[in-house]
Amino acid sequence: xxxxxxxxxxxxxxxxxxxxxxxxxxxxxxxxxxxxxxxxxxxxxxxxxxxxxxxxxxxxxxxxxxxxxxxxxxxxxxxxxxxxxxxxxxxxxxxxxxxxxxxxxxxxxxxxxxxxxxxxxxxxxxxxxxxxxxxxxxxxxxxxxxxxxxxxxxxxxxxxxxxxxxxxxxxxxxxxxxxxxxxxxxxxxxxxxxxxxxxxxxxxxxxxxxxxxxxxxxxxxxxxxxxxxxxxxxxxxxxxxxxxxxxxxxxxxxxxxxxxxxxxxxxxxxxxxxxxxxxxxxxxxxxxxxxxxxxxxxxxxxxxxxxxxxxxxxxxxxxxxx
Amino acid sequence: xxxxxxxxxxxxxxxxxxxxxxxxxxxxxxxxxxxxxxxxxxxxxxxxxxxxxxxxxxxxx
Lengths: 322, 61
Prior knowledge:
The complex is a heterodimer. Chain A is α/β, with parallel strands linked by helices.
């Protein structure tokens, strides 16, 4: 099968490309290297899979590419992972980047996809579409009320996926990722940041009282969900993809300390705007329709991420600024 | 490794969406209309307008 992976040099995108290639698929990857985090980290993600005829990579912005020409090369599946990431950075004038890269770029891709016989258009959505819900676990039929401009942009693009399914029959499916972690995690994300601070014997900042909870999902489970989304007959729907357990931030920091064999001082800070108090996915719907079941627990997943962080900064001699 | 023909066929100039061709030395993609050269770095075509180089005489590139 020939696939397009957007955001192919990023965290989830690079893992997805790696598995697609391993399973014998042909992949066109596209990424515009948005300067949200250092380029060398994304380049090192790409280096994980060797140059091979089954993989072509283009550095480009989805808004500038002739997507119709690109998709008409026999693309059967689209995994749309590209996005301007970051909840805290999405306020203020930076919101323009979020509307352009998350909403407009998705619409361009859907527009180009509407006349193609696609097997599936998988959209990487986010738990941030929910905001602070009154009941946990979060279910797909809860009223989404994002607490950050980022969440608004992800939800808007999710609605566009539904529209293009409803009006043009584009077989879209939205996967709402719950706090993804693991090797190649973005440097602004909590575990990457914490593990790096532990490596460098620096204090760990904690926003709020540390009792906020998250449903952490290991990246291999996210990749598996994308494969399952391809196979399911379900279309035009959104599914929660979570890790199935909830832990507080302080408990997660304990596990970080345990897997790294190090201890850090905690630097308690005020709550940040846009941070939700609790997330916990009800994955019942994904289990029923996709056959999804998360397999990797927090300790195992964090141990894998620690090895990667250690290797990444160790290999760079500790001089790289992330 | 030179850029393959199939990839070249699906790429267009990000500025004008018009045709591009392989540069004579094989290390870039040229849009004659926009007079821009898009570099190919480590076999990756960099199709970003901000990164493109202006060329005075695209027919010679």
